[in-house]
Amino acid sequence: MTDIPNTQYITINKDGVFVGGKTATYYRGVKMGSVSWECESFCAIQARYPNVMEIHVLSSKTCGVYAKAGNPSAETGPNAWCRVKFTSGHIGSWVFFNKFESDNDFCAENCLYVCMAELCLEEDFRNAVFDAKLFDVLKTSDLSVFVNNPLQINGYEIVVKKIAETQQNKR
Question: Is residue 146 part of a domain?
Fold first, then answer.
């Protein structure tokens, strides 16, 4: 996985939008589009997937293939990338979203909006960003956050319930 410092990508979480750990309205010297909708979208994603802690969005010079993991550069460019950080601390792979033919500034201004919209609306992209390591993440996660909060994946609902201590010892 590419090691990109948090000063080079946007972080969105329950507390807002950040670049380099600081509240941000600008990214790569460009004012981002409205961030209020993106914050609402993050809250909706987190309500549906409680194990999501943060979503990272990057404007990069590196192009990729839609909904496929890759290794973007930290250097600014017209290509939007996205990844997720789970409550377990696991950080997913960078997943390519789109190349904006206009210019680097357009991508910097809009990459958060378009990636959040794609995560909300497109199951294939969401599954790619939340990646196949989901079960590894679940194994190392505090599953108590899922009790009475079903996890929905691919049209299925996974329900977590605490089993009695005596049942655990039998396994």
Answer: no
For 88, the domain range is 10-141
Residue 155: inside a domain, yes or no? Answer: no
Could you tell me if residue 18 is inside a domain? yes
Radius of gyration of the chain (CA): 17
Interaxial angle between packed helices 104-121 and 123-130, expressed in degrees from 0 to 180 and rounded to the nearest 10: 100
- Concatenating the DSSP letter of every residue in 28-66 gives TTEE-S-SHHHHHHHHHHHHH-TTEEEEEEEEES----T
Taking each helix axis from N to C terminus, what angle separates 36-48 and 104-121, rounded to the nearest 10 degrees?
30
Q: CA–CA separation, 170 vs 53, rounded Å? A: 33
User: Exposure string (b/e) for 51-62, b if CB count within 10 Å is 16 or more?
Assistant: bbbbbbbbbbeb
Question: 59 and 74 in contact (C-beta within 8 Å)?
Answer: no
Tell me the β-bridge partners of 91.
85
In the structure encoding, which two tokens stand for residue 165, read together? 């201590």
Give the total number of structural domains in the chain: 1
pTM for the model stands at 0.78
Predicted confidence (pLDDT) per residue in 105-162, tens digit: 999 999 999 999 999 999 889 989 987 455 555 656 677 777 887 776 666 777 888 8
Compare 147 and 18 and report the one with higher pLDDT.
18
